[in-house]
Write a structure and sequence with these properties.
two-stranded antiparallel ribbon, 67% helix, globular
């Protein structure tokens, strides 16, 4: 038996070497491949958190669908919110290939054992926020997600490619809404500026804590799950957003924001990390409301899940009955039929 144990150890180190080679070559790890348990767990946590963010993220904007200012705006917002539901589903499917079911992940979310993006714990106070979320929140999501298209786990990377195409529509529709308002009345311009003031800092916090306080980043980068650090992505987002704000005619609420010739980047002030941690730990303005709403929707949908399961079981039973030959009926083998 000792030989058997040794063989297993040998196999595992071979498998680990193969895994390392795949990561090194920047190839994809697929669900059928061996992977270290810690890699699987990290991915499940990240993909689940991402999926939950898409689904919870439907709430702040869904809140305005019935109060859209025109048919056109309503059609755009409906399409956008439905896209987010689709993103959640692709991502739950990616997590399922790692062995975590959607039920199990949703239950963890509802029990507060898995997180979603802190940004969705802020309220939407006017229709202008639909524009600001599209521009800044979907914009920040794009910065985060474009590099994830090349992440080391195949199903996650492929889901991201499709998601990113839709995110770019989300950002454009938001920017176009704000641009329309900026061409309107003075009161509308003030609404845009007020909304941007509220969302700027929470949008910067979407990239997560600063690199020196982000314990998982190093390992995630070594595994090719993450390809850029939080601070790199945050800088990229600031550099990209400043010219867009100028074109729009709004400012960001940061006196420390200025171009640094030497660095070739914009300098900006430090976000309020105490606020970030408070929101992450459940004390944001809407945490309770968001989770309560999700729980209600999950509970209300229980009968649909039960009915779908019962239907699938009936179908499977019928299909099995069709395949079983009835007593007394002569059956032929393929060889016999060919004669
Ligand atoms: Fe999305
Ligand atoms: Fe989006």
């Amino acid at each position: 038996m000792t030989t058997q144990v040794n063989d297993n150890r040998y196999d595992e180190s071979q498998l680990q070497a193969q895994f390392d080679q795949t990561i090194e070559a920047k190839d994809r790890i697929e669900p059928r491949d061996w992977m270290p348990e810690a890699y699987r767990k990290t991915l499940i946590r990240q993909v689940a958190q991402h999926a939950h963010s898409e689904i919870i993220g439907m709430q702040p904007e869904g809140n305005w669908i019935s109060r859209a200012p025109s048919l056109r705006r309503k059609a755009i917002l409906l399409a956008k919110v439905q896209d987010e539901a689709g993103h959640g589903l692709y991502l739950y499917s990616a997590a399922e290939t790692l062995g975590a079911t959607r039920n199990e992940l949703t239950e963890k979310l509802i029990a507060g054992r898995q997180k979603y993006s802190s940004i969705f714990n802020y309220p939407t106070l006017s229709y202008t926020d639909v524009g600001t979320i599209g521009w800044l929140v979907d914009g920040a999501a794009i910065c985060n997600q474009v590099p994830l298209c090349r992440t080391s786990f195949g199903p996650y990377g492929r889901a991201m490619i499709r998601i990113c195409k839709e995110e770019s529509f989300h950002q454009r529709q938001g920017y176009e809404l704000l641009m329309t308002m900026m061409r309107g009345t003075e009161a509308q311009r003030e609404m845009v500026q007020e909304s941007v003031n509220r969302f700027w800092w929470p949008a910067l916090m979407m990239f997560g804590p600063p690199d020196d306080n982000s314990p998982n980043t190093e390992q995630s980068m070594a595994w090719g799950i993450k390809t850029h650090t939080n601070d790199e992505l945050r800088q990229k987002f600031v550099d990209m957003s400043v010219p867009q704000a100028e074109a729009l005619g709004v400012t960001f609420p940061d006196e420390g924001l200025k171009w640094n010739e030497e660095r070739g980047h914009y300098d900006f002030s430090t976000p309020n990390w105490d606020e970030f941690w408070a929101v992450v730990k459940g004390d944001g303005p809407c945490n309770e409301q968001r989770l309560a709403h999700r729980k209600r929707a999950w509970d209300d949908g229980a009968w649909v899940r039960e009915a779908a399961l019962a239907f699938a079981e009936n179908q499977a039973a019928e299909a099995a009955a069709d395949e079983t030959p009835a007593a007394g009926v002569e059956t032929t083998t393929p060889e016999e039929s060919a004669k």
